[in-house]
Amino acid sequence: MTLPKNVWVLGASGGIGLAFAKQVRQNVHSVRLIGFARHLEKIPAGLFDEIYPVDFEHKDQFSAQLTTFNTLNAPDWLFIATGWLHDENTKPEKTYQSLNAEHLMRSYHLNAVAPSLFIQAVLQQFGVKQATKIGVLSARLASITDNRMGGWHSYRASKVALNMLLKNFALELTRKRSNSIVFAIQPGTTDTALSKPFQKGLPANQLQTPEFTAEKIFDLFQQATIELSGNFIDFEGRLIAP
Question: In the chain, N or C terminus with fewer CB closer than 10 Å?
Answer without folding.
Answer: N
